[in-house]
Amino acid sequence: MAPSDLPDDAWRAGAPARPVLALRGVSKSFGAVRALVGVDLEVHAHEVLAIVGDNGAGKSTLVEILSGAQVPDAGHVEVDGEEVTFTSPGAARAQGIATVFQELALCENLDVVENLFLGNELERGPLLDEVTMERRAWEVLGQLAVRVPSVRVPVGALSGGQRQAVAVARSLLGEPRVVILDEPTAALGVMQTAEVLNLVERLRERGLAVILISQSLADVHAVADRIAVLRLGRTNGLFSASTTTYEDLFAAVTGVRTGHHRPADGDPPTASHDASGGWAR
Amino acid sequence: MSSSTPMVGQSFIHRVRSGELGFLPIVGALLVIWAVFGLLNHTFLSSDNLVNLTLQSAASGIIALGIVLTLMIGQIDLSVGAVSGLGSAVVSVTVMRAGLPLWLAIAAALVVGVMIGAAYGLLFTRLGLPSFVFTLAGLLVVLGIQLRVLGSTGTVNLPYESWLVRFCQQMFLSPWLSYLLVAVVVIGYAASLVVTRERRLRVDLPADRWASIALRVGVLTLVAVVATTYLNTNRGVPYMFALFLALVAGTDVVLRRTRWGRAVRAVGGNLESARRAGLPVRGVVVSVFVACSTFAVIGGVLSAGRLASAYQGTGGTDASLTAIAAAVIGGVSLYGGRGSAWSALLGILVLQSISNGLTLMNMGASATYTVTGIVLAVAVIIDELSRRARGARGASRA
User: What positions does the domain ABC transporter occupy (chain A) (predicted)?
Assistant: First the structure.
């Protein structure tokens, strides 16, 4: 699947872009717990949509629904404007939606190439085609400007930021259109967080739609085009990163309303307008 | 880049620091053991005794090969000795009491091995039981079946003219055949290195230097030619040992260069990650237990051939412990995901050299058990220290 150029061209022509991936009125409950209530979201190509929220705000459930691990009770998921039902993570991947989970799902004893192609190895006759896999590994890491000492070192010997990069690179081998990053900077130091945020920007440059799930308002503010705030399972505001202050976000996340809070949830035209503002910066 | 041909000294220090020791400790240990026994006893390094050593190593080495596979997925099979004993009993009884042809008897024993391994695999994948518990239970059950199969006399002899007995006792590669095989292996190895080098250069990947290729091919040639020539001054290379080498080399290729092998190492490294990557984890685990039991049966059949009989003591706990110790001494990590098929060869050579050497010096079982235990302890300590070195390195960079 090639990354779709359509939304990009549409944006250049000044027309409102069609979202690559959208949630429409999605609700999900676990027993008596209402994890998500009527959530609307959309993400376009060339855009980083951040989703922030406190613990228990419903971020994990949202990731599971987007990645196909859970099916919503109400509402639906749309890909390119068409309603879809993901019954498994494989189904979501087939639609071009790649998720990099917080637990990176890497094998520390395997080297970078082995991890990148794990489960999707290239073969040459009955044996693995190490040469082609290594070549493609360098290519995909190069596109992300990821620096590793060698693609033949075990992943266990890499830093946290490098591991995150390997996990992201692995998701890119499936040529997705949407990449969902679940708390990619949660366990990282300052330098490595900066590396990962660079990585996110490079994904956007490649024309991908990126959904960044995070608890760090600073990270989100640095890299996102639009920011959706989840609070107690509901969308509690949709902000354009360029025009929103840290205080606004903090208020929306915590529910302590201080500054000029500007709710815009469930308002797609505003959303795409905000998004183009984000690109222009 | 750094992985192909850096300065030898730097690469060595780097590997020691990072806990990637490879075969260095075990090869060093083997050379020290041979030197010590060679000095203490004049017959130890004689070609006659080294031919004996290869004959003693083959059957338990093949059992150890199965243990290498189970350790690679982070599991263990304690019952391999009993399974090998059952394999030898099934072959002997099927041939001698039921009067069926030998090939059919061997096939029957292999089927028994496959069934035992499949049962273990299902217990692990369906119920999630720890493998050391259900293989311990399996050890007792299989031991009971072995005694039942052998019957009241407890011993079944195989005739010396049986081809299994001849294969295991009297058949040696003729000199020209042994050198032909060495030539095939060396040329094949060299060709694979050159082809890989050319393919890598064609796509602008760093490739081995000619000096590095020449060095590796040269070392292999030297070791193979010297060993073959020396064994040929006596009886030669036993067929049974050649079979063992072929199984080790084949398993090595499968582990390193096939999807199944990669899946095995992934499951041993991180089962949950392997599952998330979409690997058929259950199938991999079952197939590993099946392969382990099957190797154990092959080892048992060869033991029956070498002893020309199957009796109640064939296999047993000693065989299990030897096989497990050999795999660990050979450098397979107890923590899963790290190791090589060649560990089975190197580990069993160390163990059998110790046992053989001490026997030559008229030191009995007590010394053998003690020394073997100490060597095993050292191997486990090296494994643990390597793991910590890797962990510390990963953590300090994280």
Answer: 21-257
